[in-house]
Amino acid sequence: MAEHVQAKTVTAHHAGKDMGAILKDCAIAAFIAFAIFAPIIGLKTVSETGGLVLRQRWGAVLIATAIVFAGRLALHLLFWSRAPEAGKKAGVLPRLAGRLEPLIPFIGVAMFTAAVILPWLPSTDRYILDLGTLVLTYMMLGWGLNIVVGLAGLLDLGYVAFYAVGAYSYALISTSLFPHILPHWLLAWSFWLALPLSGALAACWGLILGFPVLRLRGDYLAIVTLAFGEIIRVVLTNWISLTNGPNGIPGIPRPSFFGIPFTRGDNGFAHTFGLEYSSIQRIIFLYYIILILALCTNFFTMRLRRLPIGRAWEALREDEIACRSLGINTTNTKLTAFAMGAMFGGFAGSFFATRQGFISPESFVFMESALVLAIVVLGGLGSNIGVAIASVVMIGGFEMFRNMDFLKQVFGQDFDPSQYRMLIFGMAMVLIMIWRPRGLMTKRDPTIFLKEKKAVSADLVAEGHG
Amino acid sequence: MAAVAGNEVLTVEHLTMRFGGLLAVNDLSFDVMRNDITALIGPNGAGKTTVFNCLTGFYKPTEGRITMRRANGESFLLERMDDFRISRFARVARTFQNIRLFAGMTVLENLVVAQHNALMHASSMTVGALLGLGGYRAAEKEAVEKAKYWLEKVRLTDRADDPAGDLPYGAQRRLEIARAMCTEPELLCLDEPAAGLNPRESDELNSLLMFIRREHGIGVLLIEHDMHVVMEISDHIVVLDYGEKISDGSATEVRADPAVIRAYLGVEEDEEAPDVEALVSEAVVAEAPPKSKRPKPAAKAKAPRRKTGSKGTRK
Q: How far apart are CA A202 and CA A162, in angstroms?
């Protein structure tokens, strides 16, 4: 008891005595901020008549420096002063996420229900549907990449390559191949015929990437996959005779409702089903296609996890040498992981192509790979529900920046919130990685149990070495 | 060694492993009998683990032939096989000196992963099981039954659903043996299974190994420093020093072998103790007040005595 009291007085004493030190620390932080901001914010090049002019904006630099000083001071006074006690308890966000974990099944059901009824909600307009489709596309990509990164523990920075292969496969097959070989009545089915083909082609590319990287681990694997993603993009840009280069491939056929196109005419979807024609019908249909594709991805991944191949992937992530000592062919195991991940990437790619109707290499830049990987890492490696939440937050949440027009009233008419998207995105990533380094959903669900299913805590689960 | 000829499960002939200038194993030949526990002992750096790595395909030996004879009459030249094929086809299972469990997977999952090849076959390479065809469900149930059998043998049934990384050290060692046994091996190679175990646990390990030998009729090859384990359960001991075999025989034969005593167990008490005592008393006389505590003869020391110069210096 006495010790407790003493400890308390010491803390109080500490906080009082350190005010000078705190101010000094804040001043140092402000100085560093000033040194960094002076050239970045303070100087601006403006092109005017007569050439480039250097503008000085010292006011802005001062404001930024003051913000850093005040922020640092606020951190000291509000958070860091209680550090010794707070150290025992987890922060607000981890505790919140920890409390969410028992609710995972309900979150899953709620998200599924919301996704299914979304097109029928009165408040849903075309914008929301497009956004939902985009979120689901990334969710599907996230789930596909989760096989490679989350389960098998192979860090893949070039996942967009398979997305690109799928998209270009579908585009080329449906514009250049099918019109020549398919009878006319079957052409309306081209999406459904080309979808498995593009998935298979992407899976082949997964194997092609898999072979050279079999012996690589960790950073080296990441670099080679990164390079692979760039190679695909550069080839797509430069192989003009096949891919039409940077001009892209236009006129990619839209999917039909199992043979019935979404057109105004007599054979159209609306006429056949006695509905009034509306362009939103196709949007809703596309939304459901990607919903079903994404759910298939999820279902397959969850199913595969419980099969020997999935357990071998996870075992490979845990310890490759032990795997080999148990007679598991790690080569095949790695290749199947790459191929399965690539296949789902390919499906997502062909959906992307049919939805856009036009694709060009510009859509398949490294940023996409990074975004999908960020979704997987943020959601929690190996957790499909985490990936779902992360993709809603990352894609949906950041898209919301575009229509935060009320901020214009605060910061003036010139303020464009969407320009701060990436800044907030980066900050959110940093914060989440500090608070919850293993992602939102960290517990590993055992694939088989004897008496009772107990989740495996994240600190025991390996991240994989490559 | 007077063993029944033709009952060898493993024959190692002229095994040599060279790492650059370092000769880790030199012209080593020995046999492992079925239904026998063979111990591979030797001071630190004698090349025991290198031998294991050659047997299980993690190293490709520079020279030599390693023949594995399975009970069904098939025989395999292990030095030509990939590591995972050795486990899968030649049925050689191993454990590791530094435990290599799948820490983030549960105890049961560890044992089910060990039956990967059988299950993979039953799931028709995943496709069948994915479509719900074939007897995958039955095969998985069978795999769980086998896992339960071994869980009981290593007394881990209660912890089946806990992550392997959460187990205490001794239990992890036992689990690793159970996992190796789940691959249905005909030769079980254990790399220091008693390291870090307390006396009670190492007694338990002894009875587990005796059980495995008795009930499963397989050859067991173990590397061990714990002489209590080695002398009590080994039918046959091979002693290595600096990569060369210096002795080979039963526990009593090896214990009496002067070469072993010199290299490994230190100075034999009966022969050298008088000299030591004489030296000590001389020293005591020469120096200062005699201490009541008599210095222990070196033979009692468990730590292997090394000659000066580390393993890297010898060519």
A: 5
Does residue B99 sit within a domain?
no
Confidence (pTM): 0.80
Rounded to the nearest angstrom, the minimum Cα separation between B111 and chain A is 10
Structure tokens at A357: 């109707």
Residues B152 and B170 occupy one common structural domain = yes
Are residues B213 and B306 both part of a single domain? yes
Structural tokens at position A156: 């893949």
Query: Above 70 in pLDDT, residue A401?
Result: yes
| Run of H or E residues at B40 | strand B37-41
Nearest to A318 among B85, B96, B102 (CB): B102
- With vertex at residue A279, the alpha carbon angle to CA A278 and CA A280, rounded to the nearest 5 degrees, is 90
- Predicted confidence (pLDDT) per residue in B61-86, tens digit: 999 999 999 988 889 999 888 888 99
Note which residues in 300-329 of chain A have CB less than 8 A from chain B: 300, 303-304, 307-309, 311-312, 314-315, 317-319, 321-329
**pLDDT higher than threshold 70 for residue A17:** no
Chain B contacts of A450, Cβ < 8 Å? 108, 144, 148, 157, 160-161
- Contact status of A5 with chain B (Cβ, < 8 Å): no
Name all domains of chain A by residue range, CATH numbers in brackets.
Answer: 2-89 (no CATH), 99-403+436-460 (1.10.3470)
**Which pLDDT belongs to residue B65?**
93
Residue B232 belongs to some domain of the structure: yes
Over the stretch A92-137, which tens digit does the pLDDT of each residue have? 555 666 666 677 778 888 889 888 888 888 887 888 899 999 999 9
pLDDT digit string, tens, across residues A246-287: 999 998 888 877 777 777 777 777 777 877 777 788 888 899
B133 — alpha (psi -120 to 50), left (phi > 0) or beta? beta
Out of A321, A327, A457, name the one closest to residue B88 (CB).
A327
Contact B93 A315 (CB under 8 A): no
Chain A residues within 8 A of B185 when measuring between CB atoms = none
Cα A200 to its chain centre, rounded Å, is 23
A-B C-beta contacts closer than 8 Å: 137
Structure tokens at A107: 């979150």
Taking a C-beta distance cutoff of 8 angstroms, is the pair B28, B240 a contact?
A: yes
Structural domain count of chain B: 2
User: Positive or negative, the Cα torsion across A204, A379, B112, A464?
Assistant: positive
Contact A245, A177 (CB under 8 A): no
CATH of the domain at B27: 3.40.50.300
A contacts of B129 (beta carbons < 8 Å): 307-308
Distance from CA of B116 to the nearest CA of A (A): 6
In a domain, B52, yes or no: yes
Q: How far apart are CA A374 and CA A351, in angstroms?
A: 21
User: Which is it for strands B236-241 and B244-249: parallel, antiparallel or unpaired?
Assistant: antiparallel
Same domain membership, residue B126 and residue B208: no
B199 shares a domain with B86: yes
Residues B132 and B167 in one domain: yes
The answer to whether residues A315 and A323 touch, using CB atoms and an 8 Å cutoff, is yes
> Residue B26: which domain range?
7-91+184-315
Distance from CA of B149 to the nearest CA of A (A): 13
Length of chain A: 466
- List the single best residue of A151, A302, A334, A448 to mutate versus B (max B Cβ within 10 A): A448
